Amino acid sequence: MPTPAILWDVDGTLVNTAEQHFRAWAAFAAEIGHAFTRAHFAASFGMRNPEIVRMLFDANASDERCAEWGERKEQLYRASVRSGGVELLPGVARLLAEFAATGWKQAVGSSAPLGNLELLLGVTDTQKYFGAVVTGDDVRRGKPDPEVFLTGARKLGVEPAACVVLEDAVAGVEAARAGGMKCVAVTFVGHHPAEKLRAAGADIVVASLEELSAERIAALVAG
Ligand SMILES: [Mg+2]
Description:
Rossmann fold; DNA polymerase, domain 1; 2 domains
């Protein structure tokens, strides 16, 4: 029976920083004289910065401008995380420790840029659990492409079939399945409903990671 490895999504799974992202986009939009509403935020959720910039602020923005504006938004986001802090979602601290105690390898597979992830893992004191951290800067194609999770598996030295991805978004579930991995989806933050996560291929959907145990994950990989 293969030993499972765990690949963690970050935003919405490990921590919830949606409000900090919203505030950062709203502050950035104000700087360039645009509006940014809750509806804009909902429409942009899960998209990468260049796509958001072109959809909401300037359809003809150059790659350079997208990078510059995206970086400004991330500066505002990191300042918000630094000043307000961020907490692990329910069940996360216990699972991180339980998986580590069982000897399972763990990695981060996130679309977020490296600077954000370093900050989040630092603020929550969780770096020690991860044998690899794969960021949006490390991949050419974002989720639902499996590149981010396949890269994580390769860095851990684990076959995709032995990997279990923890996710909260449809694109992330699709990425896990496209990579030949098992997937547990969590609806706690509530960006996507259980039916959609199940339809995308999640093997287990839980309302909170408090419901999950190492035993249940081991059974998933064994089955
Ligand atoms: Mg997520």
